[in-house]
Records
---
Amino acid sequence: MIIALDGPAASGKGTLAKRLAQHFGYAHLDTGKLYRAVGLAVLQSGGDPENAAAAESAANALVPSDLDNPALSGDDAAVAASKVAAIPAVRAALLAFQRRFAESPPDGAPGAVIDGRDIGTVVCPDAPAKLFVTADVEIRAERRHKELLGRGETSIYARVLQDLTERDERDSNRAVSPLQTASDAVVLDTSAMDPDAAFAAALAHVEKRLKDASDR
Ligand code: C5P
C-alpha cells in the first residue's frame, strides 16, 4: 500500500507524511532528502549544482547513510537540490531507489508513505492514495522562517520568501517531472489549517482510499 504526498516546499507535507506513516505503521521516505544529498555532495566537492556531469556522478555515488547528514535540512542544500533536480540523469538515477522503497518498504512494513514533488505522477503513478499538499507561499515562508528560528538558525523572512518563490518556479517549470497535481490526487490546502487539522483531513481521505482499494 502506497500513500503518495506531493506539494511545494514547506507546505507541511513532510510532517503529514511522518504522522500518516506512524498512524498506519508504514515506512516513510522523504524523497527531498535524496535530491538534497546530491546537491550537498556537489557543493561540498566545490562543484556547481547546475553542472549535469557533476550532479549525475554525485547521484550515482549516493549511499543510504548520506541521508542522515544534519546539513541536509539547511537552505543551501535545498537550493542546490532544486538545481540538481532539474537534471534528467539525476532524476533517473534516483528513480530506481524510490521505486525499490515503494515495492519493498524496509523492515517488512506493510506499506510506504512517500513524499516529494513527482510521487503521484511519476514515481508511483498507481498509488491508491494521493494527496497534493499546498499552502499560500507567504504562509509557507512564514512557517519555514519560524522553523529556522526555532532551530536557533539565523533567518530573514524576505530571503526565505524569495528562496521559496524561486524554488517553486524551478520545480514547476522544469522539463522533467515538474511539480504538478496528479489527476487523481486530492488537493489539501493547509493555509488555514494547523497541523492537527491538516492531519485529520489527510487521514479522512487516505482511509477512504484504502477502504475503496480493499473493497475492490
Ligand atoms: O522537499 P524538499 O524541500 O526537501 O525538496 C528539495 C528539492 O528537491 C525540491 O525543491 C525539488 O527541487 C527537489 N525534489 C524533487 N522531486 C522530489 C523531491 C524533491 O524534484 N520528489
Note: The CA atoms of residues 78 and 86 lie 13 Å apart.
---
Amino acid sequence: MRHLMNPLDLTVEELDDLMALADDIQKDPKKYSHRCDGKILATCFYEPSTRTRLSFESAMLQLGGQVLGFASADSSSAAKGESVSDTIRIISCYADICAIRHPKEGAALVAASRSTIPVINAGDGGHQHPTQTLTDLMTIHALKGSFNNITIGLCGDLKFGRTVHSLVNALVRYDNVRFVFISPDELRIPGYIKEDVLEKNGAEYSEVSRLEDVMPKLDILYMTRVQRERFFNEEDYVRLKDYYILNKEKMSLAKEDMMVLHPLPRVNEISVEVDNDKRAKYFEQVQFGVYIRMALILTLLELV
Ligand code: NCD
C-alpha cells in the first residue's frame, strides 16, 4: 500500500506515468468514468479549502466512485479531542482511500502510519502540499512542454507557503532549473529547503526582494498568498500582506511567453486586471488539478 506525503514519494518516472495518465483522462474522460465504481474516497479536512477538497471529490465522482468526509475540525470528532491516529483508523473502515489536510506539520504522516488505506497529504501546516505540486507540474508540462531549462520565480510567502516547498522539492530533479526566490526578508524560503534541497542537488538559486528587477528573465512566475493563518501576530501580517501586487505594469516587463501560476486562493497579490492577460494561467491550472488527482487516485488504488 502506498501513500503520498511528499512529491519525492514519486520517482521522476512515476511522475511521468502519472502525467501521461492524466493526459489520457483529459482526452477521453468517458473511458475512466467507471474505474472507481464501488470505491469510496474520504476527505478529512481540518483546515479550510475550496479547490483541494472539491477537486478531490470531483475527481472521485468522475471516476464513478463516491465520497464522504468533513470540511472542518469543528464538524469532526477532533472537536471532542479525538487524535488524528484514532480518526484515521475509523476512516479506514469507511473508505478505500483518504485525503487529509491538517494545520500541523507531519499530521498526514501520523495518519499514514496508522492507516490501512492509502493516505494522501492534502496539505500539512506550512510543510508540504504534494497534490498542488502535481497540479503545478502538469500545468507546466502541458503548457510549456518540459521542465528542463527554465527560470522560475517564486514570489510572496516563501516561509509558510507549503506549495512552494513542495514544488521546489519536485523541480530540483530536472535539468537546469534556475530558482529566483522573491520575498520580503521576513518571509524568505526556509534554511532547510536551501540546504537540504537546493544546495544538496546543486540547484542554481538567488534571493531578491524586488519583483520588477527579475521579471524580464522569468519563464514562470509562481505567485503566492501571504499565509495569514500561520502568522503569530496580526500586525506582521498586515504589514506584509500587500508587499507584492502583480499588475499590468509589472507584467509589461515580462517575456511574451512567460506564464503566471498561483495555487489560489488569491487575495491581493495578483490584480484582477492581470486575469485577461494571455500569460495568466492560474485558472487553467485548476482544471489540470482534477485530472492529475484522478490519475493519482487510480494509481494509489492500483486500478491502472
Ligand atoms: C494552497 C494551500 O492550501 O496551501 N491552496 C491550495 O490548496 N490550492 C495555497 C494557499 O492556501 O495559499
Note: Residues 51-52, 123, 129, 132, 162-163, 225, 263-264 surround N-carbamoyl-L-aspartate (CB under 6 Å).
---
Amino acid sequence: MAAEVGPLRPEAGRSLTLSVRLPRTLPALMQDAGIGRTLVEVDELQQRVRELGAAITRDYAGREPLLVCVLKGAVFFLSDLMRVIDLPCEVDFMAVASYGSATQSSGVVRILKDLDAVIDNRDVIIVEDIVDSGLTLQYLLRNLNARGPRSVAVCALLTKPSRLEVDLEPRYVGFEIPDTFAIGYGLDHDERYRNLPYVAALHEE
Ligand code: IMP
Ligand code: MG
C-alpha cells in the first residue's frame, strides 16, 4: 500500500510567504555512483544563462520571439533563460524521438508532439539542451523553416564540437564540452539525473 502523505498547506490564519531558494546541492542524490566529474558548475550555469538572456534581449529588441523548447531536457534551461529575456516572448514545446541507440542518434527523427503555435512570420528560437551529432537539430531546422517563419535561430546550452556531423552552428551556445555523456540540469541518462543542479559527466562502470 502506498504511504499516506498528509496535506502540505499553510497553517490556518497564517499567510504563506514564498521564499524559494533552490538547492545548489542534493546530498543524497549526489552519492549516486553514476555521477562523475563536474563539467559545468551551478554558478557558471547561472552566469551564462544571464549572458545568453541579455544577448537575446539585445538581438530581438522590438520583436516578440517564440521560444521553441525541445522536450524534455531543455525545459530546465528554458525556464531559467526565459526569465532573463527582457522582452515580450512566448513559449511552445516540441517532442521528438530520434531513432538510434541510447547514446547515438541516427538523424531519422519522428515528431511525438508538434507545436501548438503557427509560426509563419514569427521569430523562432529553438531552445535545446545539447547538440551532439547535430542530426536532431538539423531535422528540426528543416522542419520549422518549411513553415514560413520570419527567422529561426538556435540557442543550445551545450555543444560537443568534436561530435558534430553536420554543418550547423547555433547562434547562441552556453558551453562547449568534451566528447563525454553529460547529465544534470535537465540532461538525463535513462530518464534519471535531470534534477541534478549542475552538469556532470556520466560515470560508467
Ligand atoms: P544529436 O541528434 O546527436 O545532436 O542528439 C541530440 C539529442 O540527444 C539531445 O537533444 C539529447 O536529448 C541527446 N543527447 C546527446 N548527447 C547527450 C548527452 O551527453 N547527455 C544527454 N543527452 C544527450
Ligand atoms: Mg534533447
Note: The chain is about 20% helix and 30% strand.
---
Amino acid sequence: MDRSTPPMKALYQQLILDHYKNPRNRGELEDRTVEVHMRNPTCGDEIKLQLRIEDDQIVDLKFLGDGCSISQASVSMMSTILKGKGLDEAHQVARRFTGMMHGDEEAARDSTLGNLRSLAGVAKFPVRVKCALLGFDALQEAMKKQQEEEATAGS
Ligand code: ZN
C-alpha cells in the first residue's frame, strides 16, 4: 500500500491551477488610491492592479488580468499576502520573490512568501520568470506612483 504523500511538485501544480481558476481578489476596487496597468508582451499577459494605500499600508487591493496560468496565479497569490501589509513589508516580499525567481534557494524557503513558494520551479524557465514577476512589477510601480503622488500633493 502506498502511503506516501503526493510529491511536492503535484501539490504545487494544484495550487497554481486553483489560483488560476479561482483567482482571489479579482475585480475592480472602487475606493482605490492608485492603479497600474502592466503587460508582458513576450507571453501576452496583462494585469491591472488597484490598491488602496493609507498611511503607508495596503488597506485593500484587487486586480484584473488576462494571460497564462503562471502570471494570473502569481498575482492572485500575491494579493492574498499583501492585504493589510505595510509598504516596507510589501517591498520585502517583492524582493524575496524576485530573489526566488532568480534562483535564490533561501528565498524559496521563506515562509513569508506563503503560497508564492509554489512558483519556485518557474525559476528554471527564464521565459516564464517574467510571467511570474508581472504582478510584483505592477506592485512596485504602484507603490512608486502612490509615493510620487503623495509628494506632489504635499508640496
Ligand atoms: Zn505568461
Note: The chain is about 50% helix and 15% strand.
